[in-house]
Write a structure and sequence with these properties.
heterodimer, A: alpha/beta, Purple Acid Phosphatase, chain A, domain 2, nine-stranded mixed β-sheet, six-stranded mixed β-sheet, 15 strands, about 30% strand, B: alpha/beta, Rossmann fold, seven-stranded parallel β-sheet, 31 helices, 25 strands, about 40% helix, disordered C terminus
Chain lengths: ~220, ~800
Amino acid sequence: MLGGLELLPHLSGALYVPAYETLIISDLHLEQGTSLARRGIHVPPFDTAVTLDVLDATLSTTHAKRLIFLGDSFHDTQGEERLDETHLSRLRIITNQYETLWIIGNHDPHPPQSLGGHGAETIALGPLTLRHEPAKKLKNEIEIAGHLHPGCGLSLRGRRVRGKCFIADQTRLIMPAFGAYTGGLSINSDAFKGLFDFEQTKIWMIGKSSLHRFSL
Amino acid sequence: MLAHGLDNESALLISPTGGGKTLAGFLPTLVDLEHPHKNHGIHTLYISPLKALAVDIARNLEAPINEMKLPITVETRTGDTPHSRRQRQRINPPDILITTPEQMTLLIADPTAAHLMKNLKAVIIDELHSIVSSKRGVLLSLALSRLRTHAPNARFTGLSATVADPDALRSWLAPANKPPVPLVLGTAGAPPDIHILESAERVPWSGHKALYAIPEIYAEIKKAKMALVFVNTRSQAEMVFQELWNANEDHLPIALHHGSLDVSQRRKVEAAMADNKLKAVVCTSTLDLGIDWGDVDLVIHVGAPKGSSRLLQRIGRANHRLDEASNAILVPSNRFEVLECEAARAAAKENAQDTEYPMVMKLDVLAQHIMACACSGAFFADDLYNEIITAFTYRKLTRERFDQALDYVATGGYALRAYERYAKLKLDIAGKYRLAHPMLATRYKMNMGTIVADEMLKVRLASVKNRTGKRTVTGGRVLGELEEYFLSQLAIGNTFLFGGEVLKFEGLDEFGALASKTHGRDPMIPSYAGGKFPLSTYLAERVRGLLADKSKWQHLPAQVKDWLNTQSWASAIPRADQMLVETFPRADKHYMVCYPFEGRLAQQTLGMLLTRRLERWGAKPMGFVSSEYALVIWCLGDVSAMIKQGRLSLAKLFDEDMLGDDLEAWLAESNLMKRSFRYCAIIAGLIERNFPGKEKTARQVTVNTDLIYDALRTHQPDHLLLRAAWDDAADGLIDIHRLAAMLKRIKNQILHKALERVSPLAVPVLLEIGRESIYGEADDALLAEAADKLEAEATSLV
């Protein structure tokens, strides 16, 4: 619950808002593989395919009519041009089928040119403000952001279990990164300092087959 | 030795420590360079596995050279050598260059290598036995194949301690198309004098602390001139050191030496040893190798020796004189270790060796070498292939595999050919492979090497000030370094034992961890994992033999004899070729204990596979724990009854076919495979090393290798790096080869005892339950257990 709205975190890292039939997805980082390859780091070129597979699977389990990408949808400004034909048409099918909104991020300061949907810097979804980077909020503003790729690690019975996570208090939620090669930044790191009311913060950690909720 | 050298012949010199090996290796060079000569590049390369050793050897060599006023220049080149001097060495090389395997590889990757090595006459490799069994050795052997091309007439001399298979080392030193190099045997020393500590105290059932023996160890130290106290892990070292310090009524100078301590601190300890200022040093394998450090006259080995050769090498640290027997005391820390110590003592007495066969054919190392060659200049694929197969380690490399590796280096080796545009190596008009950008050479140099450690963070002494209610922590002296993994589990205020002191964790800053000294009584012991060796196959066989043969029990302490006698009437003592399996109920669970004696790694894999099968066959297994010797699985189902009624067949349960589908299915998801993959990906240059202290950002350049592993497994399961990771895991982390050999050995040789209650032999491993972390892969189950119980509503959207 955030701002009186029911929000459903999904195992894939997406967030569904039933009241608005909207699926929010943050930090796709499409074409991260080719972006690194340009600099001689030859990670496998399968990230865009894998990310789109997961996106399709996620969409098929929700009743979403609207799709909001929360920024950093492409890993760099030329990412869109490097998409191969298959991936391009797969994305077009999605943007034709759903009302698509592209919030711009620091990696992709312009919305995609060859795909459907509209670009925006911030979007108001009922009581919620959606933007890429968590910002200084106005009074009474309730925000959903991405950008930071939250992740956490827990030591349980001598083992260290790590994973991506959602993190939220009563006025802000930061979503995990969706892209296949995106990692997690520890929620204990400086980047998260001052963003949350410690007492109220909860995390939803993404496991292999279910989400696990913890209080901080 | 001199004869071989003067005839310009390669050779392998095997001699126990103290045989004057090092000087023997240099003699031909000194004779050769005796007269004034013009410098035409490096004359002799000397390669030592340890940086510190390289520096010491240079010093030891300079003394006779100065004394005899020989016109010879000697220099070292290690990771610590300043850039300016390395540059100078390229322009004006010394006659003798003393270096490490990693620097050797960097040298051959340099465009000036061919010129520098043109007149190379000799290559001496010290402590060859310790290098060949790791990826360092594989990489070095490739570097040597390159040296042979640059200097076809150079001779290669290997210096080694006694090994199980000298012929393998002889072939390792020679090009694959030539006969093995001749063997020169040094004079054997007097056989060592080894005792097992006969404690008046009760030897504990399990555990690795050996605390019971501390007063007796202390008494032995007091009697000796200088003692080395070897232990197997760093945390054991910390613990034994602290306990000895508590017992130290006479204020004896006792020091600590292990790999986590700061280098300057270690050097201080070594210097104090050399000056005979210490009475004892508690150490790990960090002091296994090296030159003489003072008059050590006693080696105390706390815990199981793990292998006969390892023990002999460590014992050799005492009394570096050949004519006197080395003196050693073994201190078993539990009852099974008494058996292992006795077996090791008997083996060492016979001078039986169990060193590993040289490691060969690592695809990730091959990829790194290809990159190194590309950095030194353009090459034809045919030439490089023909050169590489002259290395002993790659003599069986097929052209197909080589081409795959080359393709991997060039474009990542993906079926899609997606990165053709971004290739690191490009074919030029002449048909040569050429580096696409000079930047790539710089990146190679930053990331080369075969040692991939877990991320380490520096630990610094902190001063905490409370000013006007604000707590400020400032860092001071560096104490050493610890695994990031361990530190990330600490909360501010937690205490841990490090460098012999109880430290309080004060937090992290951009340089690493901060800790302050404290007088806390109960430190949380560092769980850093470094330095665990598995029990050698050879020693395991001897332990089984010792257990089976009652006539050999006479050497065992009375309490251990009693323990085994009770076992023989309460259950059974297996024959040497048998494996005992016991099943019994206890509390509300049913236990199955088996005794393969194959070391923890192989047995953990066995436990993983057996639980899968027991699950499938309805025994409802709950968990398992393995020691070095035994494996226990506990179930809800009554295993004894199932076997009696024929619903469960032990022969089928332990059938070799578990290494088929079950293994495949488990490995696909296994964290061990992912770890193995990470190491290979770093060595093969797929991703860059993480440099400690470098702050990670959300836009991490390096992609998590687990994610890459998953993507590759789904989209290109035959990729070179997956193959490399599998090979490594099969040898190392999951030890499939050993498990396979064991399953073969016990076929039709399972001795089953259905018991009413736990047997004496089973007690030690049952005590490990709860102490050891439960081994498994069920991360989700663990998370679910720990998640907030308050709100049990499903949070996932399905």
